[in-house]
Specification:
elongated, 11-stranded antiparallel sheet, 22 strands
Length: about 325
């Protein structure tokens, strides 16, 4: 006997119009709520704030790791931020009567110029040595590009009277010591005119007062340029500075220690040369503007450079909807 089909078994599979409308209603609520949550997140604002914080923290971390200055340059017209830091490209300690440098940058010098009473170990002494100089072919190394700035650091001891040239780097940078214990630092700027790029007609110079370098005593000397100002420091004290923004002209010759005709009347030790290296520029999202200083400077160790910033730095991000957000940098370099 064949069983009869029940009414349930004979019903068509599917949904009613009422059930379909109910599902669509629930979906519209879920989607609307989700869109509202995404709008509240405002990913554009988060992206802009995160980008600024990341660039600032990158520069601060570099200053901490390298124990050297770093900065973030800000161009409000294009919304770009660029982190810059000093990178060591050459060091010489003048040991073993050879002009041996790091990174394979060895030079030539008369072995008789080495003395045993250096700042640490041996040093080079050019006192009363007319016609003698040390040379290193740094112009063959592409790292010696000082376009965005540089730092030259060494320890020197003036011996007796007279003055002379301490060093020069390929016609781009030079340091000289005067008879009165004064120090002069300079670099050749790059200018761009109708004739194209060329070296400036006059160097950019900083000149210290007399007596900053005492005879027969080792002094730490540092000449630093960051496309904001050229600064000369003796024993960690700025003794001369001048504002300047021009790029530095190309290195077109070797590093020369002392001078054949005007030898430095003293000794040289622990020479370190660095160049300013810039990261790729970070660009803010469209319709986001930034207000604040043109640059944020971090000193060695990661804190704000107190010579440049007398108070904490505030950067204000302005958004298309009229709202604003402030990103602060404290004295210790913390980004808030």
């Amino acid at each position: 006997m064949i069983a009869k089909k029940t009414s349930l078994e004979g019903a068509r599979a599917g949904v009613t119009l009422l059930e379909l409308l109910l599902v669509l209603f629930i979906l519209s609520i879920v989607i609307g709520t989700g869109m509202g949550m995404f709008a509240a997140l405002d990913l554009g604002k988060q992206q802009a704030a995160g980008l600024v914080k990341n660039v600032l923290r990158s520069a601060q971390n570099t200053a901490i790791a390298s124990q050297a200055p770093a900065c973030v340059r800000i161009d409000p017209t294009t919304g770009t931020l660029t982190a810059e830091a000093l990178e060591v490209i050459g060091t010489w300690h003048f040991e073993n009567k050879r002009l041996t440098g790091a990174f394979g940058l060895d030079g030539q010098v008369d072995p008789e110029l080495f003395v045993s009473d250096g700042y640490i170990g041996e040093a080079l002494s050019f006192a009363d040595r007319i016609g003698s100089a040390g040379t290193v072919p740094v112009d063959r190394d592409a790292a010696f590009d000082f376009y965005d700035g540089f730092a030259v650091e060494c320890v020197v001891r003036k011996e007796g009277v007279g003055g002379g040239r301490l060093l020069s780097i390929g016609g781009a940078i030079a340091i000289e010591v005067g008879r009165a214990g004064d120090v002069r630092g300079l670099f050749t700027p790059m200018v761009d005119d109708s004739g194209g790029l060329r070296p400036g007609p006059t160097p950019v110079v900083v000149q210290s007062p007399p007596g900053v370098m005492s005879a027969e005593r080792w002094s730490r000397l540092r000449l630093h340029y960051d496309r904001t100002e050229l600064v000369l420091e003796i024993d960690d004290v700025a003794v001369a500075r001048t504002p300047e923004t021009a790029p530095v002209w190309h290195v077109e010759g070797p590093l020369v220690l002392s001078d054949l005709r005007r030898p430095f009347p003293g000794s040289l030790d622990n020479l370190v040369i660095s160049t300013v290296v810039a990261d790729d520029a970070a660009v803010l999202p469209e319709r986001v503007t930034i207000q604040g200083p043109a640059a944020v400077f971090f000193g060695p160790g990661g804190g704000l450079d107190r010579n440049r910033h007398r108070e904490p730095v505030n950067l204000v991000l302005a958004y298309e909807d009229g709202s604003q957000e402030t990103i602060g940098v404290g004295f210790y370099g913390t980004v808030e």
